[in-house]
Amino acid sequence: MAIATPPPAYESEEEAMILDMVRTLVAERVAPRAAEIDEKGEFPWDIKQLFAENDLLGVPFPAEYGGVGGSFVTYVKVVEEVAKACASSALIIAVQELGTLPIMIGGNDEQKRRFIPKLASGEHIAAYALTEAGSGSDAAGSMKTRAVRDGDSYVLNGNKIWITQGGVADVVTVFAVTDATKGPNGIGAFVVEKGTPGFSVGKLEKKMGIRGSPTVELNFVDCRVPAANMLGPEGDGFKIAMKVLDKSRPGIAAQAIGIAQGALDYATQYAKERIAFGKPIAQQQGLQFMLADMRTEIESARLLLYEAARKCDAGAPDTTEYAAMAKLKCGDVAMSVTTDAVQILGGFGYSVEYPVERMMRDAKITQIYEGTQQIQRVVIARKMVGKWSPPKA
Ligand code: CAA
């Protein structure tokens, strides 16, 4: 079925060129693979290679470190375009950004030169390891993974779970407690390379959606990491983790809005062709109200997303809350629009022979990862009213 999305406005000629290329690659190479990627639940190495060959894994990273030097606005539009057809494929681009950002934000020049060019080119895959079994939302307060200084190294012990691309990553930034007496200011960020003794990949999760994206447990047993792989000063790890999320949550918002647009495009075309009561169901007012609401929700969420991406580009002081608002709004829109798309297709919508049920399953994770929708609200509200601390006795 034809995709009917109007092309978005471009911010530069470079962005127009990149997005034209992405649209062609998605139509010719990604869309035809999307159902199979979901069904097989395997990481699509061919798609990762396609993105690498076309420089799509280094869009927001500076040219001096091998990146494209594009804007965050362009980056989110690329993720959105891919997600219209395949959320798992879009996540390859989004997680490459998420996993590279700790080094971009917290790394020194030597670390950036050592790691970023191979990540920007796609030769290496990145992952970001913050979450643990007992610490999802309470990322700092309940962190158990420890990093103990020993000479020129840190020795890591602990486990991380729900690590997107963790099983295929060459480079993982791991957050670990270096001083348990200091709370969030006693956490370090360490770049751990695949093959480091003591670092292993554990259980592969079986998931409702984004099934082509391997989500795994990572284990660290006396894993010795050179001190030269620590990002920033020892206690800065949590702040680095949070600054990363400020710039990565818009990527998930873009994935969400892409999924929503893909589902709306499909449902609209279907409604124009499906006849009931003697005319296309698109001509029934009940359906028209649904389609109009879906489009309005997508357009408003997209405006917020692009504004959040502009804030990232500008380094604006309110980037944190804009990133959280974009992720909150776009995730909720993705869930409601995909659910309505399934409804519009009726029984066909519930069948795996049509893409909208996959889109609905894929949408759900955008309300959960990179901070649940509830955590986004905490982040937004704290920027409005501050974080309360009990008065000291
Ligand atoms: N930028 C810079 N510094 C920040 C910051 C930010 N955005 N947010 C917090 N900080 C600083 C604070 O200023 C504070 O510093 P000081 O002690 O010097 O004042 C310190 O970090 C601790 O901050 P909080 O007191 O606010 O910390 P908290 O323990 O109350 O937690 C939270 C805050 C917002 C709840 C945070 O834990 C959080 O975001 N939780 C959700 C975690 C999350 O999103 N996980 C997603 C995992 S990644 C993923 O899902 C990827 C994937 O699969 C694709």
Tell me about this structure.
With 393 residues, the protein is an alpha+beta fold. The chain folds into 3 domains: 13-121, Butyryl-Coa Dehydrogenase, subunit A, domain 1, CATH 1.10.540; 126-234, Butyryl-CoA Dehydrogenase, subunit A, domain 2, CATH 2.40.110; 239-385, Butyryl-CoA Dehydrogenase, subunit A, domain 3, CATH 1.20.140. The chain has 11 helices and 9 strands. It has helices at residues 13-30, 34-40, 45-53, 72-85, 87-106, 109-121, 237-273, 285-314, 319-345, 356-365, 373-385; strands at residues 126-129, 146-150, 153-164, 171-177, 187-193, 199-204, 215-226, 275-276, 279-280. The chain has a 4-stranded antiparallel beta sheet, with no helix packed on it. A 3-stranded mixed beta sheet has the order 1-4-5. A hairpin with a 2-residue loop joins strand 8 (275-276) and strand 9. Helix 7 runs antiparallel to helix 10. The longest helix has 37 residues, at 237-273. It starts with 12 loop residues before the first helix and ends in an 8-residue tail after the last helix. The model has no long low-confidence stretch (mean pLDDT 97). Acetoacetyl-coenzyme A binds at residues 95, 98, 128, 130-131, 137, 139-141, 162, 164, 184-185, 238-239, 242-243, 245-246, 320, 369-371, 375, 378-379, 387.
Summarize the structure in short.
The protein has 393 residues and is of the alpha+beta class. 50% of the residues lie in helices and 15% in strands.
